[in-house]
Amino acid sequence: MLDLTSTSEQKTLGRSRREYRMEKPPAQRRKQQPGPAALQVAGINGLLQMIAAGRELPDVLGVLCRFVEAMAGVCHCGVYLIDWSGPKLRNAAATSLPATFNDPLCGLPVRCEGGPCASAACLGTQVIVEDVETDPLWQGSAFRALAALHQIRSCWSTPIWSAAGEVVAVFAVVQHQPARPTAPQQALMGLAAHVAGIAIERAQHALALKRTHAYLAQAQRLSVAGSFCWRVATDEFVWSEQLYHIFGFNQAERVTLELMASRVHPEDVPLFNDAMERARNTPGDFEYEHRLLMPDGSVKYLYLAVHAIFDQYNQLEYIGAVQDVTQRRLSEEALSKARSELAHVARMMGLGALTASIAHEVNQPLSGIVTNASTCLRMLATNPPNVDIARETARRTLRDANRASEVVTRLRALFARKAPTTETVALNDATREVIALSLSGLQRRRVILQPILAEDLPPVMGDRVQLQQVILNLLLNAADAMSGIEDRPRQLLVRTEREAGNRVRLSVQDSGIGLGAETAQLFEPFYTTKSEGMGIGLSVSRFIIESHRGDLTARQNEGPGATFSFSIPCEPPSPTAAVRQMRVL
Amino acid sequence: MTIAAARPLVTVIDDDQSVRESLPDLLRAFGYSARAFSSAEQFLASDCVGESRCLILDVVMPGMSGPDLAQELIARGINLPIIYITADVDEAVRAHLPEPEARRCLIKPFGDTALLDALKRELQNESGE
Fold first, then answer.
1. Is the ipTM reported for this complex over the cut 0.90?
2. Which of A362, A369, A371 best probes binding to B when mutated, by most B CB atoms within 10 angstroms?
3. Where in the sequence is the domain holding A514, given as residue range(s)?
């Protein structure tokens, strides 16, 4: 007979299984023999130990079933997990029942009329079938046929609840004769369902944790990122698997600061030590980059984001994520190299634009030298030799030769291909040199150049030649912008000045055709308004200025023409920034 | 024949100081008298326009260029032989020198004999006309 009379009571029993022992009427306990009670405690203890030790779920449930079978007398026990996605029962532990019973049972859908276990799961109540043969509910059901086949007469199904209030399994007790549970048997089943619930939930948590861990490990592998925890007071480290992989250490190795430092790129060791020191002394979140030098000589670039926390004993702990950004860095470096090549091309194009000026600059003194030397020879060949004029022509020869030599020196500096350097640059002097080099070219293009150089200009830190290339580029652009101007003077103003925030600004103001509508595109590579020109000059110029931590801007004048200017800071960059900057350059 | 006619005046017009200083001495060594100006405008304002027998003229100068001056002289009805000089052969082409002049233009640095040949040719042509 189906027992639905105590639905609410049974449900309460299942849900509050953790308090089950307290709910049990004390009178029943006293009636039990000391022997079985002691056995029961020992058995439950053993099961809880198995659960705590993380033993496999089928093992735990198997032991549970045998324990209940031993305690309750002639019966068979089984725990059937419910797969709600089916929904189907899954045999978790019914070792004393044959597969010919278990397998068909597990194939049955979990529906109220499916059988006592399915019914218990669907209704969330204990279902007591005293006699399968006489119970009207199961007449004609697949369960009844199955039970008859195995001479099973009674079946008691107790739902097993999760903490979240979901039926996760059913605890079943079957016997070969009609029976109703006694109070001690009922108590035992409640206890068994309670323990099974703990075991199942624990197993599910372990599985979820394992999955999460696997996802995390996979995510770390995919993102080439690792994580760590650093207990500062004791210098204890916990590393993720991927972090071991990044550092190239065996997971058996104990992580120490010394071990980490042994992998840090020698050039970055001071940075690393400095960062560790700061992390120790001034707790807080920070980001940080350094390189590793691997045993095979390869270099890895790491990016660390670190978060400070204090544990329950107010001890400082850092939790950090480490990303291997080698690929990104290498492509940045490749990009930077490509830019540097481009800068060289642009310089060469500047050279092309300057050819006339250079030819002029060099050929003028050469012309003087040839003419003076010719005259000198002729003066010496007369009779008597005209020594005064000969001396004068020799003096002029020397002067012109020096002049030609200076031009060559300036050109060599400006167009040489050399690695960028950081030095103290007097921007006014650098500007004067560029002006000297391009002046005659500008004059012949009827450009009136007026330098207004601030007297008190502080020096800047940077690459002199690169900055000169930018200035030259701006001058040539300005001259180009004015080449078609006939109705007004081709005025070119080169101005240097101090700016707030310890910066200096250099502006080149022309009276040319102006910027037009496409100001935003000006600095894009290959944007050009000139018929002969690749349009790299301004984009490269901007790259150079940005690598000097400055900015290059263009604006339309209030009158005709445009002004291009750049502003760069005077003080040297911070050491970390310097390292990064040098890597980008 | 006057002494002035025996020592014809050759005028140098160039914005470059080296040329202005060196050429007159060489021209005198050749037997000409010589004057030098740093721009076409200065030359036009001087008393040498009528006296000059030949111009040694830089092609590209700030302000009025060599060809500009040649046009101006023609406009004034002054027919002067001109020897163009330039520091850059492309410049001569860019400045739209007429073909014969562009071909005969002396490219700096030029030798003394090249200059002397050009002078002789130009002054020969002039006396022949």
1. no
2. A371
3. 331-569
